[in-house]
TrEMBL record:
InterPro entries recorded: CRR_secretory_protein, GNK2, GNK2_sf
Protein's cellular compartments: Secreted
GO CC terms: extracellular region
Keyword Secreted: yes
Signal peptide range in chain numbering: 1-18
Keywords: Membrane, Repeat, Secreted, Signal, Transmembrane, Transmembrane helix
Transmembrane segments: 257-282
Domain of life: Eukaryota
Family recorded in the similarity comment: Belongs to the cysteine-rich repeat secretory protein family.
Entry protein name: Gnk2-homologous domain-containing protein
Gnk2-homologous domain sequence ranges: 19-121, 126-232
Organism name: Aristolochia fimbriata (White veined hardy Dutchman's pipe vine)
Keyword Repeat (UniProt): yes
């Protein structure tokens, strides 16, 4: 099979990359416009922004038989649901333009990956990869630096394989002034073992593609690794699936949950007290008005106050739960080079 692989060379100073980091179109395998495959593909793609951003990962199919379409989307583990949704939205639109009428295609930005095909590619490891060395070189001791990069990313691979998100970030100090930040992620259809295999394969590519670079990215369809000497990912990452059963973060999650409950409880008590006072004031007012004109609006008013109160409590609880794990998108503004 002949695949067209295209990675774009660019200098990007905006928050979001303007070109995909990976574009994969199988131009040997086209469908005709208006065919069932095309209809199934549209049916698969349109709900993907909502479905994918709900948890950061979604795989599904549309249609049946030879015209069945298999699709997968995944967002980087450090982006917020909003960034995730808009990235998937963008890829679903762009893939139709960049890979017109192809029965198999993939598009990857730093924030998300979209892939579809006419065959069941789920859980099938593919080690195709692209490398993007940061053109700036590390000045001091590149050999020791490279070794530490390998150690950091290998450690992160082990951590990622134990997470349901198959995602991990971490930092290590190379010297007093130089830190190394790493990120690894596999698509969530991978088994733990295939995830490790993929990450190790890509990490092993770094000394080959990017010897001495102060940053690099190696990525493909099933996994990706990246390191830089500055934090390029959002540190307070969103946990799409809360790591309830992860050693180490358990206590932290527990105390956050307790804190959230306490905050909600305090806010609730304050609001109920406030509502009591409001109801009491309204009652007095109405009582005096009733005395004046004889109209009984008390029950309606009370219901309105209670409804208002319930809305406030729900909003506050919602906001509290959202505050944990919400990330803000961080820029990825490195200069990237094509390197096959
Ligand atoms: C498939 O479509 C692409 C783009 O529309 C075209 O370049 C390519 O030649 C087509 N391939 C075949 C086998 O018809
Ligand atoms: C997707 O993008 C289009 C414009 O390209 C916009 O009109 C639409 O509201 C977006 N949908 C979502 C779910 O973000
Ligand atoms: C980094 O090193 C490579 C080879 O070791 C060299 O080709 C490249 O010009 C260097 N880049 C800079 C910015 O010095
Ligand atoms: C990798 O993990 C090992 C064992 O936990 C640890 O000793 C080492 O410092 C770690 N290395 C890096 C670069 O994170
Ligand atoms: C990386 O570069 C260093 C010198 O900067 C060299 O000694 C080493 O052999 C190179 N490693 C590879 C894998 O090319
Ligand atoms: C928690 O993790 C342990 C080992 O990591 C596993 O055996 C157990 O089934 C997990 N429990 C839940 C509820 O996922």
């Amino acid at each position: 099979m002949f695949f067209v692989l295209l990675a774009c060379l660019f200098l990007d100073f905006t928050l979001v990359r303007s070109h995909p980091v990976l574009q994969f179109c199988d131009t040997t395998n086209n469908y005709t416009s208006g065919s069932n495959f095309g209809k199934n593909l549209r049916q698969l793609l349109s709900p993907l922004p909502a479905r994918g951003s709900a948890t950061g990962f979604y795989q599904g199919t549309a249609g049946s038989g030879a015209d069945r379409v298999y699709g997968l989307v995944q967002c980087s583990g450090d982006v917020s649901p909003d960034v995730c949704r808009s990235c998937i939205n963008r890829t679903t639109t762009e893939i139709a333009i960049l890979c017109p009428n192809q029965r198999e295609a993939a598009l990857r930005y730093d924030e998300c990956l979209l892939r579809y095909a006419d065959w069941r590619f789920f859980s099938q490891l593919n080690l195709l990869k692209l490398s993007f060395p940061n053109p700036a070189n590390v000045s001091a001791n590149p050999v020791a630096f490279g070794k530490m990069v390998g150690d950091l990313l290998t450690n992160l691979s082990g951590a990622a394989a134990t997470q349901s998100s198959l995602f991990a970030t971490g930092m290590t100090g190379f010297s007093d002034t130089l830190k190394i930040y790493g990120l690894v992620q596999c698509t969530q259809d991978m088994s733990d073992g295939d995830c490790r295999t993929c990450l190790q394969n890509y990490i092993a590519q770094i000394p080959v593609c990017c010897n001495g670079s102060q940053g690099a990215q190696v990525l493909g369809l099933n996994c990706g690794v990246r390191y830089e000497i500055h934090p390029f990912y959002q540190i307070s990452q969103r946990n799409y699936t809360p790591p309830i059963n992860t050693s180490g973060s358990e206590g932290n999650n527990m105390s956050k949950a307790v804190l959230a409950i306490i905050i909600v409880a305090i806010v609730g008590v304050v609001l109920i007290l406030a509502a009591g006072i409001i109801v009491w004031i309204l009652k007095r007012k109405q009582a005096s008005r009733r005395r004046a004109d004889g109209i009984d609006g008390e029950d309606i008013r009370k219901a309105e106050v209670l409804l208002f109160l319930r809305k406030l409590i729900i909003t506050e609880a919602d906001r509290t739960s959202k505050r944990y794990g919400m990330g803000i998108f961080s820029s990825s503004d490195d200069v990237s080079n094509l390197q096959n």
